Protein backbone atom coordinates (compact mmCIF):
# COMPACT_ATOMS: atom_id res chain seq x y z
CA UNK A 1 0.00 0.00 0.00
CA UNK A 2 1.27 3.45 -0.93
CA UNK A 3 -0.16 6.09 1.40
CA UNK A 4 2.86 8.39 1.52
CA UNK A 5 2.37 9.85 -1.91
CA UNK A 6 -0.75 11.74 -2.99
CA UNK A 7 -2.10 10.59 -6.32
CA UNK A 8 -2.75 13.20 -8.96
CA UNK A 9 -6.01 12.86 -10.85
CA UNK A 10 -6.65 14.88 -14.02
CA UNK A 11 -8.65 18.05 -13.32
CA UNK A 12 -11.84 18.17 -15.42
CA UNK A 13 -14.20 21.11 -15.77
CA UNK A 14 -16.43 22.17 -12.88
CA UNK A 15 -19.58 20.41 -14.09
CA UNK A 16 -17.63 17.25 -14.84
CA UNK A 17 -16.08 17.42 -11.37
CA UNK A 18 -19.52 17.62 -9.78
CA UNK A 19 -20.83 14.70 -11.80
CA UNK A 20 -17.81 12.56 -10.95
CA UNK A 21 -18.06 13.58 -7.30
CA UNK A 22 -21.71 12.51 -7.20
CA UNK A 23 -20.78 9.12 -8.68
CA UNK A 24 -18.00 8.68 -6.12
CA UNK A 25 -20.38 9.51 -3.25
CA UNK A 26 -22.95 7.03 -4.56
CA UNK A 27 -20.34 4.31 -4.89
CA UNK A 28 -18.96 4.96 -1.40
CA UNK A 29 -22.46 5.04 0.10
CA UNK A 30 -23.14 1.56 -1.27
CA UNK A 31 -20.40 0.33 1.03
CA UNK A 32 -19.52 -2.73 -1.04
CA UNK A 33 -16.21 -1.51 -2.50
CA UNK A 34 -12.99 -3.02 -1.13
CA UNK A 35 -11.04 -0.85 1.30
CA UNK A 36 -8.25 0.03 -1.17
CA UNK A 37 -10.77 1.12 -3.83
CA UNK A 38 -12.76 3.09 -1.23
CA UNK A 39 -9.61 4.95 -0.17
CA UNK A 40 -8.75 5.71 -3.79
CA UNK A 41 -12.28 6.98 -4.44
CA UNK A 42 -12.22 9.06 -1.27
CA UNK A 43 -8.88 10.60 -2.24
CA UNK A 44 -10.15 11.42 -5.73
CA UNK A 45 -13.32 12.88 -4.23
CA UNK A 46 -11.33 15.15 -1.91
CA UNK A 47 -9.30 16.46 -4.85
CA UNK A 48 -12.45 17.03 -6.90
CA UNK A 49 -14.06 18.81 -3.97
CA UNK A 50 -11.03 21.09 -3.59
CA UNK A 51 -11.05 21.81 -7.33
CA UNK A 52 -14.76 22.70 -7.26
CA UNK A 53 -14.30 24.92 -4.21
CA UNK A 54 -11.39 26.73 -5.87
CA UNK A 55 -13.37 27.31 -9.07
CA UNK A 56 -16.37 28.58 -7.09
CA UNK A 57 -14.15 30.99 -5.15
CA UNK A 58 -12.68 32.27 -8.43
CA UNK A 59 -16.17 32.71 -9.89
CA UNK A 60 -17.30 34.57 -6.76
CA UNK A 61 -14.27 36.84 -7.09
CA UNK A 62 -15.16 37.63 -10.70
CA UNK A 63 -18.77 38.37 -9.75
CA UNK A 64 -17.58 40.68 -6.97
CA UNK A 65 -15.30 42.52 -9.42
CA UNK A 66 -18.18 42.96 -11.88
CA UNK A 67 -20.53 44.17 -9.15
CA UNK A 68 -17.93 46.61 -7.86
CA UNK A 69 -17.35 47.96 -11.37
CA UNK A 70 -21.09 48.42 -11.86
CA UNK A 71 -21.44 50.24 -8.52
CA UNK A 72 -18.53 52.50 -9.41
CA UNK A 73 -20.07 53.28 -12.80
CA UNK A 74 -23.37 54.13 -11.10
CA UNK A 75 -21.61 56.46 -8.66
CA UNK A 76 -19.73 58.15 -11.53
CA UNK A 77 -23.02 58.61 -13.35
CA UNK A 78 -24.70 60.08 -10.29
CA UNK A 79 -21.72 62.39 -9.75
CA UNK A 80 -21.91 63.65 -13.32
CA UNK A 81 -25.66 64.18 -12.98
CA UNK A 82 -25.08 66.18 -9.81
CA UNK A 83 -22.52 68.30 -11.64
CA UNK A 84 -25.19 68.99 -14.25
CA UNK A 85 -27.46 69.88 -11.31
CA UNK A 86 -30.14 67.42 -12.32
CA UNK A 87 -32.73 67.19 -9.54
CA UNK A 88 -32.77 63.73 -7.96
CA UNK A 89 -36.57 63.90 -8.00
CA UNK A 90 -36.46 64.01 -11.79
CA UNK A 91 -34.24 60.91 -11.82
CA UNK A 92 -36.47 59.17 -9.28
CA UNK A 93 -39.61 59.73 -11.36
CA UNK A 94 -38.16 57.99 -14.40
CA UNK A 95 -35.87 55.54 -12.68
CA UNK A 96 -32.13 55.76 -13.15
CA UNK A 97 -31.93 53.44 -16.18
CA UNK A 98 -34.68 55.23 -18.08
CA UNK A 99 -33.25 58.62 -17.14
CA UNK A 100 -29.85 57.63 -18.53
CA UNK A 101 -31.44 56.39 -21.76
CA UNK A 102 -33.41 59.65 -21.99
CA UNK A 103 -30.25 61.71 -21.45
CA UNK A 104 -28.28 59.69 -24.03
CA UNK A 105 -30.98 60.05 -26.69
CA UNK A 106 -31.14 63.82 -26.35
Topology:
Elements (H helix, E strand, L loop, with lengths): L13 H17 L4 H49 L4 H7 L1 H10 L1
Helix pairs in contact: 1-2, 3-4
Describe this structure in words.
The protein is mainly alpha-helical and 106 residues long. The chain has one domain. Helix content is 78%, strand content 0%. The chain contains four helices and no strands. The protein has helices spanning 14-30, 35-83, 88-94, 96-105. α1 (14-30) runs antiparallel to α2. The longest helix has 49 residues, at 35-83. The mean pLDDT is 78.
How many domains in all? 1
Q: Looking at the structure, what is the overall shape?
A: rod-shaped
Helix content: over 70%
Radius of gyration: 26 Å
Integer average pLDDT: 78
Largest sheet: none
What's the β-strand tally?
Answer: 0
**What proportion of the residues form beta strands (DSSP E)?**
under 5%
Tally of individual helices: 4
Structural class: mainly alpha
Sequence of secondary-structure elements: HHHH
Report the uncertain regions: none
How far apart the termini lie comes to 76 Å
Can you describe this structure in just a few lines?
This protein is mainly α and 106 residues long. 78% of the residues lie in helices and 0% in strands.
Q: What are the key terms here?
A:
mainly alpha, rod-shaped
